[in-house]
């Protein structure tokens, strides 16, 4: 009984490791998100699964924990994943023009897939402008920060070329107007 109790964790990891290998639910090379750990599976063995995070850290997770966790596999069965970027535009800019500029910006980025096509729509009317959401698809979800950054960069250029204004929060505009009024009265 004492030996069985002492080996409980080892046997649990062993059985979980065998189960993971048989089901092939987590394999080396897969990008996974598991209970707050997002990274690439670098190794699986009878006892543990090693995951290299986006920051370069290697997380060693016992197989018993992996078998109990909800694992979001980001590459299987299909690596195509949707991204979203939220952006605001001025009330002075026509929504159709803003949406066209957003979609055009996404299409300019090489990592964005042409099919399914990017789309954009109005999400809210705020005090300082209209909010929009741009959605697009990629195969490299693990590079989402770089891809989203590139899409945001292209949005800025498309907006500048089309004369679309990204509004400041109303508090900034009102403060600047007030300061100009005070300065002119001096």
What does this entry look like structurally?
- The protein has six helices and eight strands; from the N terminus they run ααββββαββαββαα.
- Helix 4 packs across helix 5 (144-162).
- The relative contact order is 0.13.
- It has 186 residues and is of the alpha+beta class.
- The longest helix has 19 residues, at 144-162.
- The strands form two sheets. It has a five-stranded antiparallel sheet with strand order 4-3-2-1-5. It has a three-stranded antiparallel sheet with strand order 6-8-7, covered by helices on one side.
- It has helices spanning 2-6, 8-23, 63-68, 95-108, 144-162, 170-185; strands at residues 31-34, 37-44, 48-53, 58-62, 71-73, 81-89, 119-125, 130-138.
Task: Give the key terms.
single chain, alpha+beta
Q: What's the layout of helices and strands?
A:
Blueprint: H1 2-6, H2 8-23, E1 31-34, E2 37-44, E3 48-53, E4 58-62, H3 63-68, E5 71-73, E6 81-89, H4 95-108, E7 119-125, E8 130-138, H5 144-162, H6 170-185
Antiparallel strand pairs: 1-2, 1-5, 2-3, 3-4, 6-8, 7-8
Number of helices: 6
Q: Please count the beta strands (DSSP E, at least 2 residues each).
A: 8
The side-by-side strand order for the widest beta sheet comes to 4-3-2-1-5
Task: Provide the β-strand percentage band.
Answer: 25-35%
Low-confidence stretches: none
Tell me the Rg in angstroms: 25 Å
Describe the largest sheet. Answer: 5 strands, antiparallel
The secondary structure category is: alpha+beta
Shape: elongated
Summarize the structure.
This protein is of the alpha+beta class.
């Amino acid at each position: 009984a004492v030996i069985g109790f002492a080996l409980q964790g080892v046997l649990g990891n062993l059985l979980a490791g065998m189960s993971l290998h048989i089901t092939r639910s987590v394999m080396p090379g897969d990008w996974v998100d598991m209970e707050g750990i997002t990274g690439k599976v670098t190794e699986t063995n009878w006892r543990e699964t090693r995951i290299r995070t986006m920051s370069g850290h290697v997380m060693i997770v016992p197989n018993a924990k992996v078998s109990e966790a909800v694992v979001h596999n980001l590459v299987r069965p299909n690596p195509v994943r949707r991204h979203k970027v939220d952006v605001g535009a001025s009330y002075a800019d026509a929504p159709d023009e803003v949406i066209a500029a957003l979609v055009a910006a996404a299409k300019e980025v090489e990592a964005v897939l042409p099919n399914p096509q990017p789309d954009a729509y109005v999400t809210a009317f705020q005090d300082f402008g209209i909010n929009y959401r741009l959605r697009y698809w990629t195969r490299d979800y693990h590079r989402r920060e770089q891809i989203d950054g590139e899409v945001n960069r292209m949005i800025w250029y498309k907006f500048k070329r089309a004369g679309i204004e990204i509004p400041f929060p109303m508090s900034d505009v009102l403060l600047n107007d007030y300061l100009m009024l005070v300065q002119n009265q001096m």
